[in-house]
Amino acid sequence: MALNDQVQNFWEQGVCGSSTTIVGELKPLSKEWFERIEEHRYSVEPFIHGVAQFPRHHGKKLLEVGVGAGTDHLQWARSGAICHGVDLTAEAIATTRARFDLYGFQSNLTKLDAETLPFESDTFDIVYSWGVIHHSEKPQLIIDEILRVLKPGGTFIGMLYGRHSPAVFKVWVRHALFKGKPWLSFADVVWHNIESIGTKAYTKKELAAMFASYRQVELVPLMTTYDTTRWPRWLSKFFPDDWGWFIGIRATK
Ligand SMILES: C[S@@+](CC[C@H](N)C(=O)[O-])C[C@H]1O[C@@H](n2cnc3c(N)ncnc32)[C@H](O)[C@@H]1O
Q: Which of 4, 48, 83, 233 could join 107 via S-S bond, C-beta 3.0 to 4.6 A?
């Protein structure tokens, strides 16, 4: 089966951030369910607001690639952006649509594989994508498509996973070292054990090369709770933000 079909199958089974450990017994798609997802998201990833800076983009034409449960997409709408969203799964599109209906907002939502975007060149002021591009079989195609659909001077804002991070090290210890396979690479354990099959994680240097066709590329590594959970506190001082599992990106066309 093609990799992106496997990626789609994985995410069709439940939108990102809606596991029962987060939402408990709350009724799916109810206001309480969405509010719990939102509350949890920004308690574990509070830096999203700093990277996205939603309110600064009032009135701008926005495309979000990989809307998931639509939590950030709702922040774009609340901030007055003109919203367009895409995702590989019907589940994410239906969930985001239900959320927008519930809160009285509008977005043009489409289910598609973002390796090919059905938009004219030079269309969007902002393209946003948080934790999505590294799941696709050919991330470079998405990055190139985003550049094409951005207006000149438009901005890509997003996040991709960082490979040299405590989060990946912990996955390596569990799935390589403890299984007697210390020769497995960080890339290998990320591919097979983090979310959908085929997940990738990058160094800052690799990301700089992938975004080389953009201007003013700013990479902001973020130390996350996924890095620091079950991590001895004394070790943290050896791992500044530069080693974080998330790498925020702002890049201009
Ligand atoms: C980890 S979730 C992130 C969702 C959301 N951005 C968030 O931060 O909660 C990854 C999402 O990317 C979507 N996705 C993966 N590959 C994709 C592709 N090639 N095109 C469009 N969406 C994709 C998945 O369907 C899933 O909804």
A: 83
Beta bridge partners of 150: 124
Domain boundaries, position 115: 3-252
Q: Where are the beta strands (DSSP E) in 17-172?
A: 61-65, 82-87, 107-111, 124-130, 150-161
Q: What is the four-CA torsion angle of 179, 183, 186, 192, rounded to 10 degrees?
A: -50
Distance CA 28, CA 47 (A): 26
CB neighbour burial string for 183-194, b if at least 16 within 10 angstroms, e if fewer: ebebeebbbebb
Task: Report how far residue 71's alpha carbon sits from residue 42's, in angstroms, rounded to the nearest whole number.
Answer: 9
pTM of the predicted model as reported, rounded to 2 decimal places = 0.96
Q: What's the structural domain count of the chain?
A: 1
Task: Say which CATH number the domain at 50 has.
Answer: 3.40.50.150
Q: Is the CB of 190 under 6 A from ligand 1?
A: no
Helix or strand run (H / E) with residue 186: helix 186-193
The residue nearest atom 23 of ligand 1, judged by CA position, is 88
CB of 131 within 6 A of ligand 1: the answer is yes
How far apart are the C-alpha atoms of 121 and 54, rounded to whole Å? Answer: 23
From ligand 1's centre to the CA of 69, what distance in Å?
A: 9
Read off the pLDDT of residues 54-92 as tens digits, 9 standing for 90 and up. Answer: 999 999 999 999 999 999 999 999 999 999 999 999 999
Count of other CB atoms within 10 angstroms of residue 60: 18
Instruction: Look at residue 162 and give its three-state secondary structure.
Output: strand
Q: For ligand 1, say whether the CB of 33 is within 6 Å of any of its atoms.
A: no
pLDDT digit string, tens, across residues 26-36: 999 999 999 99
72-196-175 Cα angle (round to 5):
120
Token reading at 248 = 């925020």
